[in-house]
Amino acid sequence: MLNRQGRPTDVGEPVEAIPETFTGNRALIIEEPLIFESGRPEVTGVDLPEAPKVAHRLGGLVRSGPIGLPGLSEPEAMRHYVRLSQKNFGIDSGMFPLGSCTMKHNPRLGEKMARLAGFADIHPLQPLSTVPGALDLMERLAQALIELTGMAAVTLTPKAGAHGELCGMMAIKAALQARGEGHRTVVLVPNSAHGTNPATAALLGFQVSPLAARDDGTVDPADVLDQLTPDVAAIMLTNPNTCGLFERDVVRIAELIHQAGGLVYADGANFNAIVGKVRPGDLGVDAMHINLHKTFSTPHGGGGPGAGPVVLSEALAPFAPVPFLRREGGRLILVEHDFGEGVSPFGRMAAFHGQMGMFVRALAYILSHGADGLRQASEDAVLSANYIKASLADVMSLPFPDRPAMHEVLFDDSWLEDTGVTTLDVAKVLIDEGFHPMTVYFPLVVHGAMLIEPTESESKASLDLFIATMRDIAMSVRRGDIARFAGAPHFAPRRRLDETRAARTPVLRWTKPVAE
Amino acid sequence: MPNTHYTKEHEWVRLEGDTALVGITDYAQTQLGDVVYVELPAIGTTLDKGEEAAVVESVKAASEVYAPVAGEVVAVNDRLVEAPGIVNEDSEGRGWFLKLKLNDPAALESLMTAEQYKLYIETIS
Q1: Is the ipTM reported for this complex over the cut 0.90?
Q2: B85 vs A444: CB contact, 8 Å cut-off?
Q3: Chain A CB contacts of B64 below 8 Å
Q4: CB B60 to CB A500 under 8 A?
Q5: For residue B1, is pLDDT > 80?
Q6: Residue A52 within any structural domain of the chain
Q7: Which residue in chain A has the smallest CA separation from B31?
Q8: CB–CB of B34 and A499 under 8 A?
Q9: Cβ–Cβ contacts within 10 Å for residue A43, how many?
Q10: What are phi and psi of A287, to 5 degrees?
Q11: What CATH code is carried by the domain that includes residue B41?
């Protein structure tokens, strides 16, 4: 058929095989070379006046030739980065159920607030008298974190979760040394802990003593008691743990540790499951880091950097690192010296006061949600995970079927046994289906782990689509119809990568191809 | 092999005179998947039984290799550093990790035989 302008209106005969394109591009999916391959050193996008000749004292260190940076015009540079960004999958593009990472929506309000000039355009070396608003925001955030955790104090300076762990364990070490108990050198770490926990303890010279979980996936106080020698400095407990289970004996475990003279470190990476429901201070915790950048928005891939403030108990508060906030004569100051009576900071974690942009986003998140909203976010995150668990329990396999999940649900790979399909294949097929894969092969305590964390951000419709997709994948496995798994993803800009070769012979540096 | 013994941590140890080769079992390499990195101890290191002797890292996980018995490291398999895939190809042969001079060769008797190890794997898998 032709329309009145003489243009064909029918779609033509469909073809079976999709033809290759001349450019390698596939409509909106455009191949993009490295900037070093497309740029030319002689090109520049800006017209600068010639630099004046100046005297220098570099002697033999002065550069003798061009350094070969790629030059591009402004539209070329623009297209390069826009095309790269179009290959990215983030929480703004679709569901990102990456367990343990809490890929929740990053509210635009927080982004707007963080860009306010009074927060974004200030410098850490400005006189304090010029930034009372920023200090006030930090004070309000500190108070909110103290209230939500039921702890005595908070240090805002650590820059990420693992940095916060290091800070908390350094406070524990300092407190033990101040008590004259430097002989305590053992740290108990459950096998299901985040890998950073034993790494942190080892970095500080502690000896890591692993704790196995009992059959239900949680730590047994009896096992803690067995290992509780006079050398134990602390336990590092993640709650909810990495299997997505609440450590229901945490209070008893903390009592045992305290009775033996040790301290309790809690990995707060999963605090998002219990905000507004449980206060870690009530559980007997002495130190816990909070991943501001996931619990209170801006997960990785969401744009922002990390921030890992650490809340501290009465026993550890005097050892918090500098700088810290103090109110003096009605105004806030950042204390670097003159700590005051009974305060002996163990040192400092960062050059300045911490990650200002994240402080703004976290406070915006806390204030805009309110107490009821924060509680509901935790409840909805747990509800979503349990909805997925209940909806997939009959087609996948659960290592801990009898315990309710918290904010994430853990499956193992026994449903894939003898099918020829692996956990990795399932993850890759999810890419074809338009989802970011779940976390795979972590935690290590479960074989072929698939850890799914939907977060409270997903609507029921979105959860239902994910569940229907997973059921469809499971049905393919059951039917033995496994063609979709081999070599998946089939529709991504790049097919499955050879991870083994990438790890064994990584190419870490671009070198100019030699002309043939 | 009659002179090879096994541990619950999936190391094998094979007596050759008063020294013994140590490596990880075929079951261990299967569970780990493609090995991409191996870290070996310095020659001359003395190890207690159960002490960390080496590190093996695969695409899926990193794991320690423990000394099955006490002894002194007298040789290491440097080839694994350049070609860690050998561990997958021949874990109980060319993929050996280190050679120990044993303090007490009789200590091997406390470890599992090939037959016992085979039964042990069946109970855990």
Answers
A1: no
A2: no
A3: none
A4: no
A5: no
A6: no
A7: A447
A8: yes
A9: 11
A10: -150, 140
A11: 2.40.50.100
